[in-house]
Amino acid sequence: MHRLRVAVVVAAVLAATTAAAAPPDFASMQVQRLEPAKPAPAFELPDLAGHTERLADLRGKVVMLFFWATW
What is the pLDDT along the chain (71 residues), one digit of tens a residue? Predict the structure, then answer.
């Protein structure tokens, strides 16, 4: 019977502290809302064989672009 009373008290304390918890303050954490993705601009580039590759031709496929430059 004693364990039952302890369990009831613990449950009541947990319920009281959980209900009183304030929502997180996202503004103070400088969290920014995720903006919906924007479509990539249409462009075309030559591949290593000299053929023109267009981004529009790859619609629906996963595309990874790596750009680099040497100065």
Answer: 556 565 555 556 666 665 567 787 888 888 888 888 888 889 898 989 999 999 999 888 998 888 788 87
26: tokens are: 């996202």
Q: Rounded CA gap, 26 and 13, in Å?
A: 27
Threshold 0.85, pTM exceeds: no
Residue by residue, DSSP assigns the chain as -HHHHHHHHHHHHHHHHHHHPPPP-TTTTT--PPPPP-PPPP-EEE-TTS-EEEGGGGTTS----------
Q: Say how far residue 40 (Cα) sits from the centre of its chain.
A: 19
Ramachandran assignment for 25, one of left (phi > 0), alpha (psi -120 to 50 degrees), beta (any other):
beta
